[in-house]
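Take one protein record:
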Amino acid sequence: MRTLYHLWLSPFSRKVRIALAEKSLAFVLKAEKVWERRNEFLALNPAGEVPVLVDDDGTVVVDSTAICEYLEEVCPEPPLIPGTAVERAEVRRVALWFDNKFYREVTQHLLDEKIMKRFLGLGAPNSDAIRAGKANIHYHLDYVAYLAERRSWLGGDNFSIADIAAGAQLSALDYLDDVPWTEHEAAKDWYARIKSRPSFRPLLADHIPGVKPPKHYADLDF
């Protein structure tokens, strides 16, 4: 059986989970405590990071972007990087915005400080970093609104890996109740459409021991 090594709140793991579900590919989840540095896992990915996909034939693919590109090759329908060459370039650009820029400026400051530091034994959260993440998220939610108001979906006319990448990042932060939805109605409306997709619902059922999500987290109507 196809296996995805992941962490429950890793936005990059969530991105791959959604992509697999959108393509109706069966898989099993295996939570990997990356801080334990297991030799068996390091043999799959010497970087010691999730997500890692082990396909049915034993093929190992590492990194969320590489995995999603691989899935497009082996299972092209439905396409998650659709359109012409120009349209696909735009989809990839928006996806990378959330994978890279949003992660560095928001998720890393909030999720890593609040959750990952605890597991890695790196001490108390940095309050300055948390404040920076909370400030930066407004800029990014404004950008979500800007895109959503001008297009059918974030990457263009069709649902794509751009929406998945953005939804994965925001869903992880929403679990921590760190997304100020009430101040960004247009972004909230877009996210409500994402939440209603069948591929997204398993994420809404996630429960991390010791960390309870807010009531709205799994509410499709917010």
User: Anything to note?
Assistant: Residues 149 and 169 are 20 Å apart (CA to CA). Residues 85-204 form a domain with the Glutathione S-transferase Yfyf (Class Pi); Chain A, domain 2 fold (CATH 1.20.1050.10). The mean pLDDT is 95. The longest strand covers residues 3-6.
